[in-house]
Amino acid sequence: MEENPKEEKSIETSGGKRRFFIALALGVSLIILGVLIVFAAVRINRNPKNDDVAAGERTESEEKSTVYEKESTKSVGDKTSSPTKNTGTEAGEENSATTDDANMQTTVSENTAATDDKTTSGQIKEPAVTESAQTTQPSTEQKTESPNKPGTDEVKPSTGEQNTQATLPPETSGSQIPSGSVEEKARYYVSKMTTEEKVAGLFFVHPEVINGGLQADESTKAALSRYPVGGVIYFGNNIQSEAQLTSLLARTKEYSKYPLFLGVDEEGGRVARVAQAFDSVQNTGDAASLGASGDPASAYGAYGKIGAYLTKYGFNVDFAPVADIYNESNSMFEKRSFGKDAKLVSDYVYQAVKGLQDKGISACAKHFPGHGSTKGDSHNGMAVSMLTMDELLSRELLPFKSAMSAGVDFIMMGHISLPNVLPDNTPATLSYDIITGILRNKLGYNGIVITDAMRMSAVSTMYSSADAAVMAIKAGCDMVLMPVDFNEAYQGVLNAVYSGEISIERIDESLMRIYRVKCRNM
């Protein structure tokens, strides 16, 4: 039978359409499946990828922070001070009752005798707190709770190494000096001090102790940072030229953490460290020559000139005038005293104090209760005055009372034994009865009381540096001048504070007297 061509064409057309639609459906399905797979992959990978990025960012940030911390740590390295040299002092200068240059010497400390360290008593060295102070006495600045109390740590006493980086006072920290009264300023400085700094502030030393005999350098800065003493006294051997002296004083003052006394013996005549060093400075002559004129006003003019040139070089303390009344049996004061008459000497002392302090130089009347009638020289041994209390009050003390009425900033104690006043031969410098009983309570003096040089034989042959310093503070002195061994003396007073033998309130009392004077001219 023959096929129909139209039916065959229709069948072929119908089959082609089916194949087309089947292929189309399969292609669409594959496309959709591919889209779903891609979408699923994106969804699955999104969070891990973001987490990795965040982690990477944190790692980079942390690494940067660590680098910064490392760089910061590097910038806080300790500076090593340069080796120091103790220059000593020149011999043969006039025997001032303040200090005798011929007697200045540096002795090797017992604590370093068995080592290769050649540090002398004239240099600051590491303090060693006594065992009792280490184990039983906390720093007075800190309050401690029982070590057995849960959650608390035992507070150990400070030893001089701690707290040396305390907040600096205005002169070095750049902060502002508080406005207000001298009292408020003084209290501000005292409040900034650690216990160790407070004790150091009671000492008046020669410049070799702070490694600044002829110039002040980084070793001076390091010494004053560690032991901010209250004052430095200079001698002829510390003076070479006007420029050198000016630089020495300015840089020493700059390096001090706290306001600093810069002192000198400048009485006029043979006891004139600056006038004897420079031809350009007029020596105003000795006190005896001024006294011989019979005109007390001449003392105002002479000491005004002294005050002017001391101010020019940078000093702020003069250990003058001599307030001792001359007695022919004591030749040491033949030229240094204004005379033999108590009333005349008193008038001269008044004018001399005014002359210095009107020029901004703190005066120091010396040597209480009167060296003029003593037998013996306290530089070389015991000096004894046989005067009674009535004789002291009616004669020897009059020039000191005159100095007080003039507003004298310092009174220096003499190393004088008074067997008719005291029950033993204790020098007046170490006597509570003389300093607190008479000078403070009876005469009403509330300025700075300073010892005479503690290296003088009247003290140094009888007492250790530590014992002498502790006795002086307990007796009522505010400042200790030139102990034989500064380190021993400093540590002795510090240990006495730790043990409670000397209260921190007693130390603060002296510091307030000191800083009232220091802050007055700021």
Structural descriptors:
18 helices; 12 strands; elongated; eight-stranded parallel beta sheet; 522 residues; alpha/beta; disordered N terminus; two-stranded antiparallel ribbon
Folded structure, characterized:
- By secondary structure, this protein is α/β, with parallel strands linked by helices.
- It is 45% helix and 7% strand.
- The protein has 18 helices and twelve strands.
- An eight-stranded parallel beta sheet has the order 11-9-7-6-3-2-1-12.
- Strand 4 and strand 5 form a beta hairpin.
- The chain starts with a helix and ends with a helix.
- The N terminus is likely disordered.
Short structural summary:
By secondary structure, the protein is an alpha/beta fold.
**What kind of sheet is the major sheet?**
8 strands, parallel
How many helices in DSSP terms? Answer: 18
Mean pLDDT: 78
Shape, please? elongated
Structural class by sheet pairing and helices: alpha/beta
